[in-house]
From TrEMBL:
It comes from freshwater metagenome. Keywords: Hydrolase, RNA-binding, tRNA-binding. It is an enzyme of class 3 (hydrolase). GO terms for molecular function: peptidyl-tRNA hydrolase activity; tRNA binding. Gene3D superfamilies: Peptidyl-tRNA hydrolase. This is peptidyl-tRNA hydrolase. CDD domains: PTH.
């Protein structure tokens, strides 16, 4: 699982828990397979990035993202890779907590499949090429 490993050693997992409680299950999976946090890649929504933009980084704060907060707390470190999938900020006074749970707009749905494909391509590229090249290619 993660960067710099044989392609046959990758574990792709989606937690069945709520995003805000995903740290425990991810920690359990990583422990079971003896995966170091530095080899984990997490994909998550990001309010501070425009819709359909992708950014990659390693480590950092949770920026108010409760799923990252849970994961960092469970792992005991923030030193894991992040593929940040932009959803943009809500318009006006809409609560960010409500915004992240709403359906995509008609306009967003038109490009959603392409966005998902680029996110998957980004993860694959990160595994094969490391962070620096991935940032050069995907961080726009």
């Amino acid at each position: 699982m993660g960067v710099g490993v044989d392609a046959h050693s990758i574990i792709l997992a989606k937690s069945k828990s709520y995003m805000n409680e995903s740290g425990g299950p991810i920690k359990a999976l990583a422990s079971f397979y003896s995966v170091e946090p530095s080899k984990i890649i997490v994909l998550h929504d990001e309010l501070d990035i425009p819709y359909a933009a992708i950014r990659t980084k390693v480590a950092g704060g949770d920026n108010g993202h409760n799923g990252l907060k849970s994961l960092t707390s469970s792992l005991g470190t923030a030193d894991y890779f992040r593929v940040r999938l932009g959803i943009g900020r809500p318009m006006g006074q809409q609560d960010p907590g409500d915004f992240v749970l709403k359906q995509f707009s008609k306009e967003e749905k038109k490009t959603l499949d392409e966005f998902i494909d680029r996110g998957a391509d980004c993860v694959e590229f990160l595994i094969d090429n490391g962070l620096d090249l991935t940032q050069s290619k995907f961080n726009s």
